[in-house]
Amino acid sequence: MKLAGQQSQLVSHKRPMVIAGPCSAESEAQMLQTALGLKKVKGVSVFRAGIWKPRTRPGSFNGVGTIGLEWLRTVKVETGLRTACEVANATQTEQALQHGVDILLIGAHTTVNPFLVQEIADALKGVQVAVLVKNPVNPDLALWLGALERMHNSGITELGAMHRGFSTLDSAPYRNHPKWEHALELRQQVPGLAMYCDASHIAGRRSLLRPVSQRALDLGYDGLMVESHHNPAAALSDAQQQIMPQELHMLLQALKQQHTPAEKLKQNAQIEKLRKEIENLDDELMTLLSRRTKVTAQLGDYNKPVEQQTETPDPVRWDLVLENLLHQASSAGIDQTVVKTIFQEVRSQYARTHLYNYGLSS
Ligand code: PEP
Ligand code: MN
After folding, report:
1. How far apart are alpha carbons 195 and 215 in whole angstroms?
2. Which CATH number applies to 267-355: 1.20.59.10, 3.30.540.10, 2.40.340.10, 3.20.20.70?
3. Distance between CA 78 and CA 95 in Å, rounded?
4. Residue 162 — φ and ψ, nearest 5°?
5. 3-class state of residue 126 by DSSP
6. Domain 17-260: CATH class, spelled out
7. Residue 340 in contact with residue 322, Cβ under 8 Å?
8. DSSP string covering 318-348, please?
9. Strands 103-106, 44-48: parallel, antiparallel or unpaired by DSSP?
10. In testing the pocket of ligand 1, which one of 19, 23, 196 has its CB within 8 Å of the most ligand atoms?
11. What phi and psi, each to the nearest 5 degrees, are found at residue 25?
12. Any residues with Cβ below 6 Å from ligand 1, and which?
């Protein structure tokens, strides 16, 4: 797939391009008041609002529906900001197009479903509109890529990806874990693809918006999406992650934009990959240490109190073990002092818990 990311309106020469607006359209007054505030925020060029809201439980606020598209059009006329909203099927796509929405967002719960993605792609055949495809809820790069390809095959040239994090068993401290390496991998596979960061749905709370946005800029993202509401406390959805337009202004001012040449971006992607590899290795080390602890605990069971003792700690054996480890370290090019420190610490911990307890050592 070849994407015209660099020529796209989705990539502004004044980076980052910022999309902001409420999680949900709630009323015309809420939309206008928020949009007029956002118009004053330097860097914001697109106003977003959720019109149809897929919610986990029935009975919660499902969005205002098509009336919200009228309000979106009013915002466009009154402020000159371009507009964006999520569409999840062909009917919504047609309605958004009829109301002149500039950027269509494919939501994370839609990207997971190739039937829906294809239905939207079919509704977009021959249409000139910008489309941003969010990553699927689960960390499956093929689904994300597949949705982009379906849009591309329908003739959409203004195409970009939006990274909103992934639903994982333990996402803490995030709402959706960023797993940056996936987004960077996508970018490597599709060079030139406009890449946005939906900082709000990754963060899930105001305090994390800044570090998440900064990380995205450091990694060379083209744009940010941040949810903003004139009165977040009264928001009908995602109240805890929305910020007022003035707060968005301060957030954007605080961000440091890197002027990253292509080479630096490549380097950042490489750094991110290596960091991930180290994290995985650390996990493996932790698993091994935990297994070692369990085995030494079994050994400890044989070290009964002195009077019943059948086996004594054997310092000669330990010296041999350590010598062997240091020999291995030196042939593997690992600093011997590091290895010695680690194993001496591990061993004395074992001694403290299993031997000293039984009075086997003073
Ligand atoms: C949203 O942008 O308001 C939204 C519902 O996002 P996502 O599809 O990322 O859950
Ligand atoms: Mn939201």
Report:
1. 13
2. 1.20.59.10
3. 21
4. -120, 125
5. coil
6. alpha beta
7. yes
8. HHHHHHHHHHHHHHHT--HHHHHHHHHHHHH
9. unpaired
10. 23
11. -70, 130
12. 23, 50, 86, 107-109, 134, 164, 198, 201
| SS3 category, 173 | coil
Best probe residue, ligand 1, of 104, 164, 200 (max atoms within 8 Å of C-beta): 164
HSE-CB of 254 using CA atoms within 13 angstroms = 13
Amino acid identity, residue 242?
A: Q
* Amino acid letter, 154: S
Distance (Å, whole) CA 86 – CA 101 = 10
- Which residue has 């309000």 as its token pair? 71
Report how far residue 260's alpha carbon sits from residue 256's, in angstroms, rounded to the nearest whole number. 12
Q: Identical fold at 17-260 and 267-355?
A: no
pLDDT (tens digit, 0 to 9) for every residue of the chain, 362 residues total?
Answer: 545 444 456 776 677 899 999 999 999 999 999 999 999 999 999 999 999 997 778 888 999 999 999 999 999 999 999 999 999 999 999 999 999 999 999 999 999 999 999 999 999 999 999 999 999 999 999 999 999 999 999 999 999 999 999 999 889 999 999 999 999 999 999 988 999 999 999 999 999 999 999 999 999 999 999 999 999 999 999 999 999 999 999 999 999 987 666 677 777 778 888 888 888 888 888 878 888 888 877 777 676 665 555 555 677 888 888 888 888 888 888 888 888 888 888 888 777 776 655 555 54
What ligand 1 atom has the least distance to the C-alpha of 108? 8
Residue 49 tokens read as: 């609002």
The partner residues of 19 in beta bridges, in order of sequence, read 46, 225
Q: In the 8-state DSSP scheme, what is residue 223?
A: E
Phi, psi torsion values for 161, nearest 5 degrees: -110, 145
Residue ranges per domain, the chain?
Answer: 17-260, 267-355
Residue corresponding to tokens 């060029």? 45
CA of 153 to the centre of ligand 2 (A): 29
